[in-house]
Amino acid sequence: MSIQGQGISPERDAAPTLPPAFPPALAFLQAHGVPVAVLEEAVRLAESAGVTPHEALLRHGLLDERTYCRAVADELALPFIEDGDLVHESASYPWSAQSGFLRLKLNPTGARMALAPGGDDIERLGGAAGRLTGLAIMPSRALRAGVLQRCGEAAAWDAANALSEAEPHRSARDGATLWQKAVLIVLAGLIPASFVLPALALLLGTFAAALFLAMVTLRLAALAHHAPVAEPACPRRADRELPVYTILVPLLHETSVLSRLVAALLALDYPRAKLDIKLVVEADDAETRAALDAMELPGCFEIVVAPDGQPRTKPRALNVALPLARGAFTVVYDAEDVPAPDQLRLAVERFRVAAPSVACLQARLVVDNGPDGWLARCFALEYAALFDVVNPALAAYGLPMPLGGTSNHFRTETLRELHGWDAWNVTEDADLGLRLALAGYHVEDLASPTYEEALSRFGPWLRQRSRWMKGFLQVCLTHTRRPRDACRRLGLGRYVAALVLVGGTVITALVYPVLALGTVFLLAWHGWPEAASPWELPLVAFAQVLLGLGPLALIGTAFVGLARRRWWDCLPWLLDLPFYYALVRLAAWRGLWELMRAPFHWHKTEHGLARTSRSGHVRAPGRAPPPPRPPAEPD
Question: Can you tell me the distance from the alpha carbon of 52 to that of 59, in angstroms, rounded to the nearest whole number?
């Protein structure tokens, strides 16, 4: 059949197709071999997300930044440099990294300044091509890495000490004050003396009973608040209306879970051009850095190398990356986390309707590998009680909330205002929750799950829990340095509740065995209350409370948590929780010992060991799962 028979003009059909009109930031790429289809896709994605075509091109991985910058350098007849060692000593962190323009050391190209090109630089500088002497083009990642390398010592110091220098009374760096040490010494002497002085035993026992009852009361009060396990449905906002969202993920020896982590982050239902994902790696972790370099990560990922420094803690690494955050909001995830795909969108909606004083949203942490063993099952019940029952109630009652170590969504500017995390506190999350409250901010609950891996072996579990207990003691010491100021800021009730939630967790774990043994001995020696002396009656009454309300509070909140998630297969394990919390008490004593001998040592948690998954998100170490889907979560 002829062309004419098809009704097509041979002249029109033979005419060359005119390339579409592209913005200057993209148009020049056609002459450098970039297919028109790639540029068209960048324009489409940019219009959908409300970003520049240049951002869409790079952040969606349609073109890698190195290739783009080489094309810019060729177009402007400028040298291309990616050697971070050429960054001049005058560079400062983070200002030089944020500006994308800095001075260079003497180099063979003769360039004195380096520019990390943005989307409008081609249009601004294109007319001066050939006359831009002394300027070189450098990829933004190479520029930022060079600045961080050049300013490593200063950046490491600032990440560790910005808070402790600005507000030393808010940081754990300096340890206990003189008056706190005096009180601790006196208490250390009073406890053994109480075994021979009945009045002293009564006094200490009454204090312990009041503290224990306060904890029990808070947990039982949480049962009165109904907290569904899923956020209410809300209209889906257009991508162009969403802000840039920063994700910080600290990594240390995490090669076994990297592929799963990347798959989980790429499965987030959020425009990739508006994701600012920063994977923070320690400078001496060559294994993780090599594994990341071998992965083809799209442009929304950036590897930030935290320079060597002390203390070697997760919060210090986060503080290194925080100045580079581009997002209006920032969330922290751990390496093994699998957040619900819609979590960022839900957080944006909650922040939009929340008062400006709401600075943080705590998402729900859900143990995903409960069937891995006895420890993992009890861990899952503990998390169900804390994140599905206790924390939502604290938020509803307006009480300070000790944050979990992950899935905390912040207003970025507020986080910077508070100098980020305390690098000297090994439970930086709980500390930051209290510092937010002391600064007049609030934390709300976000009913969106982040699936986590629980430790199922005793050794790693004990090291992790000992670090938590040590950190809780650090928080308690830090925030009792100025009790009058704290009471003025929080009010007496909220301040006491905060101390009970953090310090009370450790103190009751430490004294519970002693008090339990003492009361059992008292009952066995004297019989029930009618046979006790007036000095002993309060302790006997405490024994009954201890044996009754204590387990009820622990098991009751765990039962409500598993009921809300319909985890009926976990029901038989509720009766094992008293034995599990006996191990927690062992961790508390170990944490106290570590506080005295190695207060800032960070026990690294092992990841990638899970064998099972309730939601289907966890796979064998090193293997990427399919894109996660939110499971059906009943109210």
Answer: 11
Kindly state the average pLDDT of the residues 320-326.
96
- Average pLDDT (215-242) is 90
Strands of 212-357, DSSP E: 245-251, 275-282, 301-306, 329-332, 338-339
CA–CA separation, 125 and 130 (whole Å): 10
> In a 10 Å sphere around its CB, with 0-12 CB exposed, 13-18 middle and 19+ buried, how is residue 59 labelled?
buried
Q: Which residues of 556-580 are buried (b: 16+ CB within 10 A; e: fewer)?
A: bbbbbbbbbbebeebeebbeebeeb
124-128, 135-139, 420-424, 516-520: range with lowest mean pLDDT:
516-520
Supply the DSSP string of 164-215, one letter for each residue: HHH-GGG-STT-S-HHHHHHHHHHHHHHHHTTT-HHHHHHHHHHHHHHHHHH
Nearest 10 degrees: CA dihedral of 272, 360, 161, 492? 180
| Contact yes or no for 443/436 (Cβ under 8 A) | yes
Report the SS3 class of residue 393. Answer: helix
Q: What's the pTM value of the predicted model, to 2 decimals? A: 0.90
Close Cβ partners of 187 (under 8 Å, ≥ 6 residues apart): none
What tokens does 503 get? 């310090």
Question: Using alpha carbons only, what angle is made at residue 425 by residues 423 and 427, rounded to the nearest 5 degrees?
Answer: 115
Distance CA 163, CA 420 (A): 8
Report residue 515 as tokens.
């008090």
The pLDDT-based confidence of 515 (bands split at 50, 70, 90) is: low
Distance between CA atoms of residues 213 and 216, nearest Å? 5
Q: State the DSSP code for 363.
A: E
Please state, in angstroms and rounded to a whole number, the distance separating the CA atoms of residues 428 and 404: 9
Q: Which of 615, 633, 332 is nearest to 625 (CA)?
A: 615
Q: Please report which helix (H) or strand (E) contains residue 114, including its range.
A: strand 113-115
- 24-74 residue pLDDT tens: 888 889 989 999 999 999 999 999 999 999 999 999 999 999 999 999 999
Q: Where are the alpha helices (DSSP H) in 17-64?
A: 24-27, 36-49, 53-59
Q: Partners of 113 in the beta sheet?
A: 103, 135
Give the residue, 195 or 415, on which the prediction is more confident.
415
In degrees, rounded to 5, the angle at the alpha carbon of residue 294 between the alpha carbons of residues 291 and 297 is: 100
Instruction: Give the largest Cα separation in the chain, rounded.
Output: 115
Whole-number Cα distances in Å, 140 to 66, 393, 519: 9, 44, 66
- Quickly state the pLDDT bin for 622 (edges 50, 70, 90): very low
Half-sphere exposure in the Cβ direction for 1 (13 Å, CA): 6
